[in-house]
Structure formats: structure tokens, C-alpha cells
Design a protein that fits this description.
Mean pLDDT: 90
GO cellular component, one term: outer membrane-bounded periplasmic space
Oligomer: single chain
Protein name: Putative spermidine/putrescine transport system substrate-binding protein
Strand content: 15-25%
Number of domains: 2
GO molecular function: thiamine binding; thiamine pyrophosphate binding
Low-confidence stretches: 2-32
Shape: globular
Order of helices and strands: HEHEHEHEEHHEHEHEEHHHHH
CATH superfamily of the largest domain: Periplasmic binding protein-like II
Keywords: Periplasm, Signal
Structural class: alpha/beta
Number of strands: 9
InterPro entries: SBP, TAT_signal
Distance between the termini: 25 Å
Largest sheet: 9 strands, mixed
CATH class of the largest domain: Alpha Beta
Helix content: 40-55%
Radius of gyration: 20 Å
CATH topology of the largest domain: D-Maltodextrin-Binding Protein, domain 2
């Protein structure tokens, strides 16, 4: 869910964070005496959909309001970790992708979640249940392409000479590009060193790197590129917008992703933060997000129309080929992987 519209300048973030931390340090509880919570999330369409599909229909009737803390996922992740030793933090709920939730959970900053404090967890697909977060959206890394110009079947096809200069990727998804390169070469997802050679080969083939998912969509629409590797949810959104694309699960297997929400152990409004998480798993909201964002529901009691299910969901055969990331490896090597990407691949 990387997006230019989901970012906040570093200066703006630090000013906001400084003010909030200062208030916490002075002992002023955030939103005291109110039925409200602070939710850290991306901005843009995602925030608007949270407001329309979660807050207004599910929380407002309970008298619960939400204050949004809009920033990129990096600052949000860092805030949870930096504030974990404060008596009260400045954020209740944080929306993050699965790999970032894993990183934060290692720091001890997150509240354990169970069916007792988030009742709708009982409906979550067993494979998507987490101990410190709720899985709101699920998708998988597919090949998205213009069928008038390309017919890729595998990640390895992205290195085909006939697609020179016509493959585009997103810079902020660099960790997943390592995974693609590893799978394309038949290598492990627990050691990306062999994948670096393949990434440099990709560079020589003129792979185009874009700053956001939206920029990739524009490049597909203009014909600047013919193929990308991104989550199926994006393919559904782009098709709906009239961009001439379709998608296929690569023969090497499906890299899954879940977009999740967690709650700080020192959340200032924990009761209402937990209510927000519970609402995210409500079937009404799950169905609405599937219809608008193209991501598959994570709960078993959200029944989406068959035609939509064909577009956003994955068959039993496809899910049998899931290639789960090694989050422990990614957490340990994140900085090294980012540094090599910036200095060697992007340079």
C-alpha cells in the first residue's frame, strides 16, 4: 500500500510527534474523557475508506470518534518503538503491512490480541490470525500486465530480453523485489545474497523504478511499461479505472501480503482502539473494502458476490503455492538490504 498520497514530510511528522510526545510527557492524556481513539494510517483513499466503511457505519453509532495520525508507514513504525517505554503513548492503533508489524512486535510495544479483547478475531481465517495484530486486507504478489503487449507466466519472465525497458517496479516495495529475484532464480527467501546478482541483471535490462503504485499505474496506462509485479488488489483497481491490464499468479508461487492493524501496549485510549480493531473485522466493512480496494476479506463471515470473488480472491490451487516471506530474516537484514538497493541497484 505504498503511495505518494500516503506520505507526510519528515519535518511535519517531527513537529506533530514532538507536540504529541510533549503532551504525553506532561501527563495530559490524549483525548481525555472522550470516547475516541488515535489511529495512525496512510492518507488518501485508504483513510477515506476507513472513515466511510469503518468509522461512520460501525463506530459512530457507538459514540466513538477517531482522530487520524497521517504519516508513512516508516515513521508510524518508528513512533511505536520509540514511545514504547512511555507511561502513555500518543497513538492507539497503527495500520501497517505484515512485515512491519512483525518488526514492532519484537520490541514489545504491542498489546496481545485475543477473542476476549477483539471478539471478531474468532471469524478470521486461521492462516491469517496473528497474536499482536488483526489482518484487515489480504492479497498476493501477481504479475500485472497489458495483454496486448505481454504474456508473462513467471517471475523469471520479467528478465526476458523481449521486455527490455517495459518492466516497472515500485521503489518502496524493494524488499519484495528481492523476493521476486530470489524466486525467479530458484533461490531461498531466507538469503537474498544470490538475488542481488539477478537484480543487477534486471538493472541492465532497463527495469524502470517508480516512486509509488500510482506512478506505475500511470505508466501502464500510457504504455511506458507493459508489466509490473504488485498485489492483485491493485490489478482490480486499475482494471476498474479502465487501465488495460490483467493479472496472473506466477508459476514460482504466490507471495502473500496482509495489511494489518495493531494497538500500542501503552495506548492512551485502549478501550476504543480495541473497538476500532474489532470494527475492521466486521463483515460489512470487509465487504466494502473488497468492493472498493480489490483486496480479499480476511474473515470467514464476509460473503462477497461470486463475480467479485473471482477477481479478488485466490483459488485453492493458487493458495497451495503460497511462498511466505521470512520475516525474521527481513527484520535482521532490513537496513543492509535497503542500503545495497540504494547504493548498488538504484545508483
Amino acid at each position: 500500500m505504498t503511495s505518494a498520497s500516503f506520505t507526510l514530510s519528515r519535518r511535519t511528522f517531527l513537529l506533530g510527534a514532538g507536540t504529541a510526545i510533549g503532551a504525553s510527557a506532561l501527563g495530559t492524556p490524549a483525548l481525555a474523557q472522550e470516547k475516541s481513539c488515535v489511529v495512525g494510517t496512510w492518507g488518501g483513499d485508504y483513510l477515506n475508506l476507513l472513515e466511510a466503511n469503518i468509522v461512520k457505519p460501525l463506530l459512530a453509532p457507538q459514540g466513538i470518534s477517531v482522530q487520524w495520525d497521517v504519516a508513512g508507514q516508516g515513521p508510524r513504525k518508528n513512533k511505536l518503538i520509540a514511545e514504547r517505554r512511555l507511561p502513555k503513548g500518543t497513538i492507539d492503533v497503527a495500520c501497517l503491512p505484515d512485515s512491519d508489524v512483525y518488526d514492532v512486535s519484537l520490541s514489545g510495544a504491542l498489546e496481545p490480541l485475543t477473542e476476549e479483547n477483539v471478539p471478531n478475531i474468532k471469524n478470521v481465517i486461521p492462516a491469517l490470525r496473528r497474536t499482536h495484530s488483526v489482518s484487515q486486507l489480504f492479497s498476493g504478489m501477481v504479475l500485472i500486465y497489458n495483454p496486448n503487449h505481454a504474456q508473462p507466466k513467471s517471475y523469471a519472465d520479467l528478465w526476458d530480453e523481449k521486455y527490455r525497458g517495459k518492466v516497472g517496479i515500485v521503489d518502496l516495495s524493494f524488499n519484495w523485489m528481492y523476493a521476486i529475484a530470489a524466486l525467479a532464480g530458484g533461490d531461498s527467501l531466507s538469503n537474498f545474497e544470490p538475488a542481488k546478482k539477478r537484480l543487477l541483471e534486471w538493472k541492465k535490462l532497463g527495469v524502470r523504478v517508480y516512486p509509488s503504485n500510482e506512478a506505475v499505474g500511470q505508466a501502464l496506462q500510457s504504455g511506458e511499461i507493459w508489466i509490473t509485479a504488485l498485489w492483485r488488489g491493485r490489478a482490480v483497481q486499475w482494471e476498474k479505472a479502465g487501465i488495460p491490464v490483467t493479472n496472473v499468479v506466477p508459476t514460482e508461487g504466490l507471495i502473500p501480503v496482509t495489511y494489518e492493524a495493531c494497538i500500542a501496549k501503552n495506548a492512551p485510549n485502549k478501550e476504543f482502539g480495541l473497538a476500532f480493531l474489532n470494527a475492521m473485522l466486521d463483515p460489512q466493512g470487509q465487504i466494502a473494502f473488497a468492493q472498493t480496494m480489490g483486496y480479499s476479506p480476511t474473515v470467514t463471515n464476509a460473503q462477497i458476490p461470486p463475480e467479485l470473488a473471482k477477481k479478488v480472491s485466490f483459488s485453492a490451487e493458487e493458495t497451495a503455492k503460497l511462498r511466505n516471506p521470512d520475516f525474521a530474516y527481513l527484520a535482521k537484514e532490513y537496513q543492509n538490504l535497503r542500503q545495497w538497493w540504494d547504493r548498488e541497484f538504484l545508483a
